[in-house]
Known about the structure:
Two copies of one chain form a homodimer. The radius of gyration of chain A is 22 Å and the shape is elongated. The first copy, chain A, has ten helices and 17 strands. The first copy, chain A, has a six-stranded mixed beta sheet, sandwiched between helices. The N and C termini of chain A lie far apart (49 Å). In chain A, helix 7 (138-161) crosses helix 8 (168-181) and helix 9 (241-259) packs antiparallel against helix 10 (267-278). The longest helix of chain A is centred in the middle third of the chain and has 24 residues, at 138-161. Chain A has two domains: 3-134, 3-Layer(aba) Sandwich (Creatine Amidinohydrolase, Chain A, domain 1); 138-356, Creatinase/methionine aminopeptidase superfamily (Creatine Amidinohydrolase). Chain A is α/β, with parallel strands linked by helices. The mean pLDDT of chain A is 96. At the A-B interface, helix 3, helix 5 and helix 8 of A face helix 3, helix 5 and helix 8 of B. Chains A, B: Residues 6-134 form the Creatinase N-terminal domain. Chains A, B: This is Xaa-Pro peptidase family protein.
Amino acid sequence: MSHAARVSALDGLLTDAGLDAVLATKDASIAYLTGFWGLQLERFFGVAVRRGGEGALIAPSLDRDSVGQAPTALEKSLYDAAKGNGLSTLYDTLDGAKRIGVEEDHLNFARAKALTDAGYELVPASDLIMELRAAKDAEEIAAVKYACTQIIAVYEELWADLKVGDSEADVNAKAAYALARRGGSHPEPHILFGAHAGDPHGSPGPRTLQPGDVVVADISAQFNGYWGDMTRCAHAGTPSDWAQRAWDVVKQAYDDAVAATKLGNTAKDVDAAQRRIIEAHPDLGACLHGAGHAIGTEIHEPPFLVASSDTPLREGMIFTVEPGIYDSQRGGIRLEDDILVGPENLSPYPLELRVLGG
Amino acid sequence: MSHAARVSALDGLLTDAGLDAVLATKDASIAYLTGFWGLQLERFFGVAVRRGGEGALIAPSLDRDSVGQAPTALEKSLYDAAKGNGLSTLYDTLDGAKRIGVEEDHLNFARAKALTDAGYELVPASDLIMELRAAKDAEEIAAVKYACTQIIAVYEELWADLKVGDSEADVNAKAAYALARRGGSHPEPHILFGAHAGDPHGSPGPRTLQPGDVVVADISAQFNGYWGDMTRCAHAGTPSDWAQRAWDVVKQAYDDAVAATKLGNTAKDVDAAQRRIIEAHPDLGACLHGAGHAIGTEIHEPPFLVASSDTPLREGMIFTVEPGIYDSQRGGIRLEDDILVGPENLSPYPLELRVLGG
């Protein structure tokens, strides 16, 4: 779908939602609607669309070159961030609109307060914007698939290189470089060893790979605006009884959760599919997170596959399915693929618990 | 200062500010107060401190291992993000406090609305938290200096390798790898060539270095929790008349702005020092941004050196001073160092317009 068609589709949702306008502020939403990727830092960026489809991409004049090249047909309104905060440009764009949908999980309190004080009524509208962003078209699905092929190539390099004595910091630096060399933006490998792999969000550090260690290799990066995100596991030497059993359990949870990623199910059905397997094995470790998250122009985007979500799965949604089991002493096991509702696996690559250094 | 001393210093500001408690939600503020670096994504993380100094670090149970290792003496309150959003844990921690200081430039609208609906009165308190974070102690100054020494080593590698025909994408991937190998987190080189360097926030792409191109090499990364951020320029072959004149002007603006980074001045004085030089040369290009930003546990943190800021410079503040001049056809020139109010340059390294490929 072209950027203009997306703006038009968003406009088509405003009347039913009782909104006069909508303001998108997330980088990924701005890029989805206009093709422009910004670097926000402390400055205000937004896309405001009034009922009827008119509106503007608002950005600091600092970004004039990239804004100028953006494919959007919307007006481009630049403001001088050295002199103002951009909100008066936003007010001009809103042009009489009063009830404004905003991305409530992104717009900050200061800007929300300024808008409210200026007389606007703010209405949470992340769901509205995500209703469009969540349903990926063929081109977007191909983009996620492409990102995954690049990540798979990096796994091949990783498995060929990784050996006992390597440090997490070095291995992650190399993987990030391999992703960047292939054109990946924001490469974020999280490759952890041994007990450290029992922390699903551990930061790579000086720990070196030791015989008997499990390896959890979570690799993600953005290619041409779309993310891929995968996890595979390995073991330094013959897998311990714990590692093999944990892998078997996670593989079962993965299979069941992937099978549940289909029309007719809700987000919590997918979570339940993995959770019932993982939670049945407390002797192996803990179930510390939901089944996964949607992925596209953001690495983590709504809907989230968690026990509290009744969101129905829809055609074109892509989710990471990533059950894991974690033990602070023995480490963790996680398997993660990017699954199009169907299910169709967009990141096919052997799931095996790879044995390193024979 | 220890993490406990920082919490205590923050508590010491609450009475005068008329606050019952303060809630820090930025990663960098949380790390400053507790030593814990999280990975927020969609989940709630915060540090709540009530008047009297009691409070808690609140995080998802997913992060239990890293939270467990954090040096903070505050209570550690974990919640299950698969089942709730963490706010009830926050309410328990606030324990009757009503008037709550929040980081208004970070807390999102959804959470602010939930807090307001629950009866809390939210008060902007970024300035209060930054009053502490902005004044760096000797250890923090040394950490920024260390980050700069690592970046300088990466410049040495860059200048030794860079040659006509190299692509921006490859050169940036290599620089990111060089930073990561040295232990840098979030390496974000922005090394741009020719006309593309006229976009201060351009993303590295397939463009290759051509004879006659200017090179703007902005290199930043975080080491041990603290950022360094520098920019140097080069030219492929003998500098053009434009490049040499633009460099001369930017060097003058840099000298004047560095000299203005002293006690007794305000943020806008530093900006004025560079702006009056850059804006006097519209034939060479445009002045697209302020003089710089504070730097520490965040790469861009308040105060910002912009024309609209009356914030007085204080002892221990560290700023990037980074005047630049930009032309969409001919490219850009920017010089950037990390300057302790004094001024003292924490990133001493030759500023020269380096000539590549003799």
